[in-house]
Amino acid sequence: MEKIVRIVGGGLAGAEAAYQLARRGECVELYEMRPHRMTEAHATGNLGELVCSNSLRSSLITAPAGVLKEEMRRLDSLVIRVAEDNRVPAGSALAVDRESFARGLTQAVEALPKVRIHREEVKDIPSGIVILATGPLTSPALSQQLVSLLGSQHLYFYDAISPIVSAESINLNVAFRAARYEKGDDDYLNLPLTRDEYYRFIDALLTAERVPTHGFERFVPFEGCMPIEEIADRGKETLAFGPMRAVGLIDLRSGQRPYAVVQLRQENQEKTLYNLVGFQTKMTYAAQRRVFAMIPGLENAEFVRLGSLHRNTFINSPQHLCPTLQWRQRSNLFFAGQMTGVEGYIESAATGLVAGVNAARLIAEEPPVVPPPTTALGALLRYITDPERKSFQPMNVNFGLLPPLSEPLRKKAKKEMMAQRALADMEAWVRNTEGGEVFVPLDADPNVPSAVAR
């Protein structure tokens, strides 16, 4: 009798886990409650619907996100493949047409052999081999069971998403095309602000009405998705050195660098939609329309999606999970996606990949595996599952998570060497793992500088 892996949640992590199991010949039951039960952030029933940015961040190999994406390619990631099939221009970043990406991912998973998709809400954790990948918007019923199961209250933070405007409503007499430091093919639209325009905008932003936070909820915003008004609260110049920084941008019409800019990134392949980069917000809808209309070039903007605020739920993974993403008290229960405390699309998909691989190995009665700590994926897993970590907050992949190099290097040379080491170690790990050998034991010394040397 074939064993079945039940995956709860059809986001990036759940879809990736299903693919990794299917390619190893395993049977999968994938449960996704949408569209039967919607969340406060999703709009469709498609798998892998992106609700925040449409960017999977940098593809440069000197960037941590670029290294992680390359590692995932070498692990045959479905999410990365579908993203590349639906990419839109975004300079050195991998950005996608979010609607065609979600449709493509849904169709790919639906076509997988031995994978059945159930459109229903799961309120109780199933028996047998299970991957929980319900994401940051886990339903209240399942959330409550997790609280009881884990013996402690969830940690959580709020996530704010950026507005999207129609391209035809942008004043192209104001906007100019350019990428910072000419990195890319002028893929971004830039709306320049003078010093006076910037301060008028900041004053309006600071006094705008915001969506209130419930008194019983702890507001712990993740820095990477901090609402712009929260950033502005730190000082009037903060946005000019953050999402609105004009460094590396020259308006060729004037030959001058603006005091500040608002960048717009292409949202779909038809170039009919653009999102405001870094403009996550928790202002009320009325305030958004009024304040954003003060940005030169958006005075008549048509907002097809306004920004919003929603709760993201994640567990205290260092206290509950092994690096293999198994629950320490039940080896056939895996966690994956943002609920593990990783932050970002590719990080979520990567944990789904690991959970899928290890669930398949569990069926095959093979030991679970973890990538070397010198890889971007391995380092991320160690961060979220280190039992010595007492103060746990969500984290994007970054070079600071990787062990130091054996020789001191600086800046770009250091990043390049870390990337080369990560990819070499990942390549060696893949060869050994696919051959059935556990390349990195779970108790491996994280201070060893290179897994290849083991």
- Which structural class fits the helix and strand makeup? alpha+beta
> At the third CATH level, what is the topology name of the largest domain?
FAD/NAD(P)-binding domain
Helix content: 25-40%
Shape: globular
In N-to-C order, the SSE pattern is EHEEHHEEHEEHEEEEHHEEHEEHEEHHH
Features:
6-stranded antiparallel β-sheet; Elongation Factor Tu (Ef-tu), domain 3; 2 domains; alpha+beta
In summary, what is this structure?
This protein is of the alpha+beta class.
Write the layout of secondary structure elements.
Elements (H helix, E strand, L loop, with lengths): L3 E5 L3 H11 L4 E5 L23 E4 L5 H11 L3 H8 L1 E2 L4 E4 L1 H13 L4 E4 L10 E4 L7 H11 L4 E7 L2 E3 L9 E2 L10 E6 L1 H13 L20 H5 L27 E7 L6 E4 L8 H8 L10 E3 L2 E7 L2 H4 L5 E2 L2 E6 L9 H19 L12 H10 L25 H24 L20
Parallel strand pairs: 1-2, 1-7, 2-6, 7-17
Antiparallel strand pairs: 3-5, 4-5, 8-15, 9-13, 9-14, 10-11, 11-12, 12-13, 16-17
Helix pairs in contact: 1-10, 2-10, 2-12, 3-4
